[in-house]
Specification:
heterodimer, A: about 350 residues, mainly alpha, ABC transporter involved in vitamin B12 uptake, BtuC, two-stranded antiparallel ribbon, about 75% helix, disordered N terminus, B: mainly alpha, 2 strands, globular, cell membrane (chain B)
C-alpha cells in the first residue's frame, strides 16, 4: 500500500494503515449515538444562550441546515466516493414538493416531508442508475449536467414550480404550518434535522452498508470480486443521501417561504456547497461535515454581511480559494488533520 | 425548406462555437487526463481580456488575440505547475481544485466588474453576409473558420511533429515516455498552457458575439462537456464533429420544440450516448468506465 492510497482512504479505515503503530480505531454505533447526543445538548445550550438574538439564530439555523445537508451528501459522496455535484436536484425536489403541497392543498409541511423524501429518492435512483457506471470526474460531469437540466425544467414547467417568478408561500404562523414569527423554532428544527442526519450517517457508517460503501470507494473491482453488489450498494447509499437532502430542501423552503430556481438550484450556492463543506471539514468522516459547516457558514455570512454590499461575490471568491487550498494542502480536511495530530501525539506518548 | 436550411446554418455556426470551446478542454483531458471544470472560466477570462485590451489599448477584439492568447497560455502553465501537478494522482482532489478555480475566477471577475455587463464591438462583427434568405454574421463565420484551422492544425501538430509525437507518447504511457527521455511535467505544462490558450482564443472570438458576464463560462462548459462526451474524450476530431452535432441538435430542438428546453435535450443525448457508446463516437474506449488510470 503506498502513500496516496492511505490519503484516499475513508478516515474510518485510515487508522489501520497509517504508521502501523496506531490501533485500528473503530467505534460502535452506540458510542456514536452518545457523542451525537452530547453534540445535541451542546447546541441546545447554544440556542438557549442566544435565544433572543435574531442575527445569531439565523446564522445558526443556516449552519445546522448546511451541516445536516453536507452530512447527508457525505453518505454517498464521502463514504461511497461518488462525488455528486447534483444533490441540489434532490434539495429542489424536497423544496418544491413541500411548497406545492402547502401552497395548493394546505398540507402541513411536517407531513409533506415524507413524499418529498420518497420523490427525491426515486429520482435519485432513476438518474443514478445510468450515471453510476461513470467514474470519478465523469460522474461529477453527469451530475453537474443533471443540475443544469433540473434548472431548465424548473424554469420551464411553471405550473408546478412558478417558473422564474418562483413561489411565495403565504405567511400563516403556526406549528402545523411550520411557519413561525421567531427564528428560534426554525433553529431548533434545523438542530433536529442535523441530529437525525448524524444518526443516519452513523448508522450507515457503522453498519454493513457503510463498510460496503467504503469498500466500493477504495476499489470497486476488488469490492465486486469480494461479492459486493456494487450497483445496489451505491444506489442504496444514494437513495438514503437523497432522502435526507430532500428533507433539507423542504425545511429550507419553509424557512425562506420562497422557492425559485436560482435559489434552490444554484450550483455554487447549493449543490457544490455540500461537498465544499465536507471537504473542508473532512470528506468521509462522520463529524467532518459538521465541523466544516461550523466554520464555513458563519464565515460566509460574516463576509456577505460586511463586504457583500461593496464587493459582490466576495464570499464565494474566498470559498473558491479555500477549496483549492484544501485540495492542495489539507486533503483530509480539518477533522483529518486533527485526527492525524492526535494520533501523532498518542504515538509520541506511548 | 428555407427555414430548414436556416436552422442547419444556425446549427453549424453554433457548432463551430462549441467545437472551438471544447478543443482546449479535450486537449487537456486527452493528454494530462484532467477534467478541467474551470475551462469555461478560461473562455470567460479570454472575453474579458478582449474587453480590457479594447478599453486600455483600443485594440480591435480580433487583434487583441495577440495579447490575450499568450496571457492565458502563461496562466494555464501556472495552473498546471502549481495546482494540478501536485494533485497528479488524486483524481478526486482534481475535481475539487478545478471546481475551486471555477468559483474563484468567476467571483473574482464579479467582484472586479461589480456585475456590470460589457460588450465588445468590432468593425468586422457588423458585417453581415447574405446569400438568398440566409444572413450570416461575419464574426460567427470567423469562429467557424477558426475551429476548422485549429482542428487541422492540432491534428497535424500531434501526428507530424516530433513534439506532437512526444505528447502522444505521454498520453499513451507516462512511464515509458519518461524512460524515452521525454520531460513529462514539461509536456503537461505546455499542453495545459495550449489548452488554456485555446480557451482564450475562443473567448476573444466570442467576445463580439455575446454580452460579457462573469457567469458566461457556465454556458460553455456544459456544452463543451456534452461535446467531448459525444465526440469522445481526448479526440481532436471528436471535439470537432461533436461540436457540430451538439450545435445542430440545439438549433433543431430550439426551433421545433422550445428554446428553453435545449439543455434538457442535450442531457438526454448525453445519457443516451453514455449508455449506447460510452467511449463517445471517436474516443478512447472505456476511459469513463475505468476512470482515469493512475500513472506515474
Amino acid at each position: 500500500m503506498n502513500k496516496t492510497d492511505i490519503q484516499a482512504m475513508p478516515a474510518g479505515l485510515a487508522g489501520a494503515g497509517a504508521g502501523g503503530t496506531a490501533r485500528p480505531k473503530v467505534t460502535t454505533f452506540a458510542t456514536e449515538l452518545g457523542r451525537i447526543a452530547a453534540i445535541g445538548l451542546f447546541f441546545a445550550v447554544c440556542l438557549f444562550l442566544f435565544r433572543s438574538d435574531p442575527f445569531i439564530l439565523n446564522m445558526m439555523a443556516y449552519t445546522f441546515l448546511f451541516a445536516a445537508l453536507s452530512t447527508s451528501w457525505n453518505i454517498i459522496g464521502g463514504f461511497g466516493g461518488q462525488f455528486s455535484l447534483g444533490h441540489g436536484v434532490f434539495f429542489a425536489i424536497g423544496a418544491y414538493t413541500t411548497a406545492n403541497l402547502y401552497f395548493h392543498w394546505q398540507v402541513s409541511p411536517w407531513l409533506s416531508l415524507i413524499p418529498g423524501m420518497i420523490l427525491a429518492s426515486i429520482v435519485a435512483v432513476a438518474v443514478s442508475w445510468p450515471t453510476f457506471r461513470l467514474k470519478g470526474p465523469f460522474f461529477a460531469i453527469a451530475t453537474l449536467a443533471l443540475n443544469e437540466v433540473a434548472f431548465v425544467l424548473a424554469t420551464y414547467f411553471d405550473s408546478v414550480t412558478g417558473g422564474p417568478r418562483g413561489m411565495l408561500l403565504p405567511f400563516k404562523a403556526g406549528l402545523v404550518n411550520m411557519v413561525f414569527t421567531s427564528r428560534l423554532p426554525y433553529a431548533i428544527i434545523m438542530v433536529g434535522f442535523l441530529l437525525i442526519s448524524l444518526v443516519v450517517a452513523a448508522y450507515v457508517l457503522r453498519g454493513r452498508l457503510g463498510y460496503y460503501l467504503q469498500a466500493v470507494h477504495l476499489d470497486e473491482d476488488a469490492a465486486r470480486a469480494a461479492g459486493i453488489d456494487v450497483l445496489k450498494v451505491k444506489l442504496t447509499g444514494m437513495a438514503i443521501s437523497a432522502a435526507l437532502t430532500g428533507i433539507g430542501g423542504a425545511l429550507f423552503a419553509m424557512y425562506l417561504r420562497f422557492v425559485d430556481p436560482p435559489t434552490v438550484l444554484n450550483i455554487q450556492d447549493i449543490g457544490v456547497k455540500f461537498l465544499l463543506i465536507a471537504l473542508i471539514g473532512g470528506v468521509g468522516t462522520l463529524y467532518g461535515p459538521l465541523l466544516g459547516a461550523l466554520l464555513i457558514i458563519p464565515l460566509e455570512s460574516y463576509l456577505r454581511a460586511t463586504l457583500g454590499g461593496t464587493i459582490p461575490g466576495i464570499n464565494l471568491l474566498i470559498l473558491g480559494g479555500l477549496l483549492v487550498l484544501f485540495a492542495l494542502f489539507m486533503r483530509r480536511g480539518i477533522f483529518g488533520a486533527l485526527q492525524g495530530a492526535w494520533e501523532r501525539y498518542r504515538g509520541a506518548r506511548s | 425548406m428555407a427555414a430548414f436550411l436556416n436552422i442547419v446554418i444556425v446549427g453549424l455556426l453554433l457548432g463551430g462555437i462549441y467545437g472551438l470551446v471544447s478543443m482546449g478542454l479535450n486537449l487537456i483531458f486527452g493528454v494530462v487526463r484532467i477534467v478541467n471544470f474551470a475551462q469555461g472560466e478560461l473562455v470567460m477570462l479570454g472575453m474579458y481580456g478582449a474587453y480590457l485590451s479594447w478599453f486600455l489599448l483600443g485594440l480591435d477584439p480580433y487583434v487583441s488575440a495577440l495579447v490575450v492568447v499568450p496571457c492565458l497560455f502563461v496562466l494555464g502553465v501556472i495552473i498546471q505547475r502549481f495546482v494540478l501537478q501536485p494533485l497528479q494522482n488524486e483524481p478526486f482532489m482534481q475535481i475539487f481544485a478545478t471546481f475551486g478555480l471555477l468559483i474563484l475566477f468567476q467571483n473574482a471577475v464579479l467582484a472586479i466588474t461589480r456585475g456590470t455587463g460589457y460588450s465588445v464591438h468590432s468593425e468586422l462583427s457588423r458585417i453581415v453576409i447574405s446569400v438568398g434568405d440566409i444572413n450570416v454574421n461575419l464574426s460567427r463565420l470567423i469562429v467557424l473558420a477558426t475551429v476548422i484551422v485549429v482542428a487541422i492544425g492540432a491534428n497535424w501538430f500531434l501526428h507530424s511533429t516530433m513534439y506532437g509525437k512526444a505528447v502522444r507518447a505521454v498520453t499513451q504511457d507516462r512511464r515509458s515516455a519518461r524512460l524515452m527521455g521525454i520531460n513529462v511535467e514539461l509536456a503537461f505544462m505546455l499542453t495545459f498552457g495550449v489548452g488554456a490558450a485555446l480557451a482564450g482564443l475562443a473567448g476573444v472570438l466570442l467576445a463580439p458575439i455575446y454580452t460579457l458576464s462573469p457567469q458566461i463560462g457556465g454556458n460553455f462548459i456544459l456544452a463543451a462537456f456534452a461535446v467531448v462526451v459525444l465526440g469522445g474524450l481526448g479526440s481532436v476530431w471528436g471535439a470537432f464533429f461533436g461540436g457540430f452535432i451538439i450545435g445542430l441538435i440545439e438549433a433543431f430542438a430550439g426551433y421545433y420544440l422550445s428554446p428553453e428546453l435545449k439543455h434538457a435535450i442535450w442531457f438526454l443525448v448525453f445519457i443516451a450516448v453514455l449508455i449506447v457508446r460510452p467511449g463517445g463516437l471517436f474516443g478512447i474506449a472505456g476511459a469513463e468506465e475505468v476512470g482515469l488510470r493512475e500513472q506515474d
